[in-house]
Amino acid sequence: MSRIEELPDDFDERINLNEPPSAPSLEELYSEHVNAPVQNHISDKSFEEIVQEMSKTPLFMNSLDEATDEDGQNIMVEAIKALQYEGTKSEIAQGFKDRGNEMVAEKQWSDAREFYTKGLAVLVDKTEDKWDKPADMDVEIKQRTALEEQLYTNRALCNLELKNYRSTTLDCAAALRINPSNVKAHYRSASALLALDKVLEALDVGSRGLKIDPDNTALKKLLEQIRTRAKAKEEQDRCRQAELRRRQQEKGTLEAALKARKIQVRGSTQPPNLEDAEIRLSPDPLSPTSLLEFPVMLLYPMNNQSDFIKAWAEKDTISQHLSYILPLPWDGKNEYRQDTVDCYMDTINGGLVKIGKKLTLLEALSNGKTEVVDGLVRIYVVPTSMAAQWIGEVKRKKGK
After folding, report:
1. Contact assessment for residue 178 and residue 145, using Cβ atoms and an 8 Å cutoff
2. Three-state DSSP class for 116?
3. CATH code 3.10.20.90 region(s) in the chain
4. pLDDT tens track for 101-146
5. Domain 280-398 - what CATH class?
């Protein structure tokens, strides 16, 4: 006969008797064990030693590396591994698929992919003697085919979540070779292709899937996203093509302007970095009536100094620019003045030509002797008193 016992007066009524007590920690269990009146063979072991031994038990292990003994063996682990491969091919593959599904439920995508991969490895293995023989081979083959399709489809999901988009498309393709009506494979392949910005391929795959399942809400939503991206990409392509045509027209107009002015240009194997400075027509690059502008480097070879002028108009004279550049801040001897310097340019045949400071840049470039190399005009500014010395040094270096 059952009886009812009264609770003591000092019972804490805040305690919920309907909830099970919380599990004690490993530290609490160890403390109770050590302080117990009756000791056993593990009482003299430390808490860390007991935890280390427990980690070798499959229920508590965190790593296979920690679970093995000095010889790298663990009988319990090996037994569990052996159980994974007991059964027919389809049974073992099904086991791996089930474990993968459990990992998917926990969003452990890498682990799930590993289980699906192991299941596929079993199915594609050509040997039959290491598996249990099925009772009905025809049924077994059908099960294997169905499992292979499912494993590829499920692994595609993992790869999609892991952003392995190319692997996703490959897994979906493998599943669709087995079953062309697999809607999930169509959806996941289209999703991966959209992520890769292959919108036309994504649209094709998604449309094929929707033909199979016209009421599939997820596919409809995905196709809307694909079409939106396709329109945006089409507009981007249209703008890109328009920009390309504009640049080609500007290039053609510039080449015609240089040719009309008899200015010779060429490139070299090591062009300088001019950033955004370039030969151009201003103000309108497409108008033949616009003026040419050139990047110009003023070089002071006797002092290893230079000045860069980003846009020098063709009708500007050399003296116009020298007027605000000279005198130079580093010229302590006051050797660089408008009336005490000469200007030179390289010639087409590798020599030097003296140019008057009253000449416009167009006149200096259209005389048939000079050229523009790598889109940059180079003008040497040398004190008149040092010109002969400098020219002699240049000739010696060039072997002339």
Report:
1. yes
2. helix
3. 280-398
4. 999 999 999 999 999 999 999 999 988 778 888 889 999 999 999 9
5. alpha beta
